[in-house]
Amino acid sequence: LNEGIDDIYSQLKKKFHEHFEFFSSNHSIEISPIGVNKGEALKYLIDTTSVQDEEVIVVGDSMNDLSMFEKYSNSFLVTQENHPLQIKTKHTIKKFSELEQFTRLNKNFH
């Protein structure tokens, strides 16, 4: 984080940690109510369909994608460099178009 954002991030987290989740990068801070995240939203959608968890592919590139990576095993981190989320995802790709190869090789996605 840059110094200004780091200060704001620390103050927000200290004051509002009981009510909100905070995700940051070098240039931004994302704030969400606790329990409101991409993983829960996707789970809600999947629960209303006949789609199985193993048929779901999740793709992300930032910390606010962590909740999806923790819930679904077909997870892809899009990054050009080492990223802290690599330990939470099954696959790392450099560009979104690399997903095509995965879907061709995996029978659940034909």
Question: Could you name the key traits of this structure?
Answer:
alpha/beta, three-stranded parallel sheet, 110 residues, two-stranded antiparallel sheet, 5 strands
Précis, in short:
Helix content is 34%, strand content 18%. It has helices at 3-16, 38-47, 66-71, 99-105, and strands at 20-24, 29-33, 58-60, 75-78, 91-93.
Write structural notes for this entry.
Helices cover 34% and strands 18% of the residues. With 110 residues, it is α/β, with parallel strands linked by helices. It has a 3-stranded parallel sheet with strand order 3-4-5. Strands 1-2 form a two-stranded antiparallel ribbon. β3, α3 and β4 (75-78) form a beta-alpha-beta unit. The chain is flat. The mean pLDDT is 87.
What's the structural blueprint in terms of helices and strands?
Elements: H1 3-16, E1 20-24, E2 29-33, H2 38-47, E3 58-60, H3 66-71, E4 75-78, E5 91-93, H4 99-105
Parallel strand pairs: 3-4, 4-5
Antiparallel strand pairs: 1-2
